Amino acid sequence: MNASNDTRISEFALLGFSEEPELQPFLFGLFLSMYLITVCGNLLIILAVSSDSHLHTPMYFFLANLSFVDICFTSTTVPKMLVNIQTQKKTITYESCITQMYFFILLAGLDNFLLTVMAYDRFVAICHPLHYTVTMNPQLCSLLLLVSWIMSALHSLLQTLMVLRLSFCTEVEIPHFFCELRQMIQLACSDTFLNNMVLYFAALLLAGAPLAGILYSYSKIVSSILGISSAQGKYKAFSTCASHLSVVSLFYCTSLGVYLSSAAPQSSHASAVASVMYTVVTPMLNPFIYSLRNTDIKGALSVFFRGKP
Q: Residues 14, 90: contact at Cβ < 8 Å?
C-alpha cells in the first residue's frame, strides 16, 4: 500500500464480519433484531422511570440515563452496519468515520462513568442509609451527571483531535464494523507514538480510576452486608445492588475481552466479533438484568400499559 501525506482521504472501507453473500441475510436479521430489542428494552426502562413517581429516586434517575446512553451507544454503530449489509456497500466517508468515532468514545465513556456513579449511589444507600436522602440530593445527582458528560466529551474530543492529525494511506480498509479508535491508529501512515501514549494513558486514567472506585464501593458494601445480623436483611441489601453488579461485570469483562483479542496477533476479526459483546449485547441485556427481578420496574410498566398495578 502506498503511503501518502493526504489527511483528507475521502472514505474508508468497513470490512465487517464476513464477505460471504449467503451470510449477509442472517447477519442483517440478527443485528436488526438485537438493535430493536435494545432500543425497545431501554425505552421501556425510561418510560417506567419517568411515568412512576415512586421511581423518582437517585438510583432510577441514573438507570434511566444509562438506558438513554445505551440507546445512543448502539445507534452509533449498528444502523450504519445494517445499511452496509443491505446495500452491499462497505464504504464510509472520512467525515462520517470521524463523527462516528467521536460519539462512540463519548458514549462508551459515559457508560463507564454512569456505572461508577451508580456504584457510589449503592455505597451510600447501604453503608450510610440514614444520610442517603441528604447526601444523594437532586443537586448532587445532576452535578455527577454533568461531570460525567463533560469528562466524556473532553476525552472524546482529545482522541478525535489526535486522529485528525494523522495521515492515512489511500484505499484504507478498516477490519471492523465501525470506525474503532485503535484500528484507526493502526492504519495511519504517519507516526502514531503520541496517539498510542494518549490512548493508553487515557485508558489507565478514565477506565482504571472508575473501576477502582467501583471495587472500593463494593468492598465497603460487602463489609456492611456481612455486618447485618439477619439473613433477610442481608438478602434485601444485596438484592438492591445485584443488578448493578451484574451489569458492571458484563461491561468490564467484555471490554477486557476486546482488549485481549486486539492485543493478540492476527486479531482483527476476533476483535470485531468481541466488540459486538460490549457494543450490542451488553446494552441489549441491561434492561433485562434491571427489570427481571425488579418489582418496582415491573410494577411501573404494568401501570403504564394496563393502568393498574
A: yes
Give dist(CA 204, CA 216) in Å, integer: 17
Please give the residue that has the higher pLDDT: either 77 or 255. Answer: 77
Distance separating alpha carbons of residues 188 and 123, to the nearest angstrom: 44
Query: What pTM does this model have?
Result: 0.91
HSE-up (13 A, CA, CB side) for residue 163: 26
DSSP calls for 175-192: SSSS--HHHHHHHBSS--
Residue 188 main-chain phi, psi, to 5 deg: -70, 145
Q: Mean per-residue pLDDT for 269-279? A: 79
pLDDT higher than threshold 50 for residue 89: yes
In this structure, the dihedral spanned by the alpha carbons of residues 246, 250, 252 and 254, taken in order and rounded to 10 degrees, is 170
**Residue of 180, 151, 156, 150 whose CA lies nearest to 106:** 156
pLDDT at residue 202 tops 80: yes
What torsion do the CA atoms of 170, 174, 180, 184 make, to the nearest 10 degrees?
-30
Q: How confident is the model at residue 108 (pLDDT cuts 50, 70, 90)?
A: very high
Mean pLDDT of 280-309: 82
Q: How far apart are CA 117 and CA 148, in angstroms?
A: 9
Q: Which three cell numbers stand for residue 219?
A: 468492598
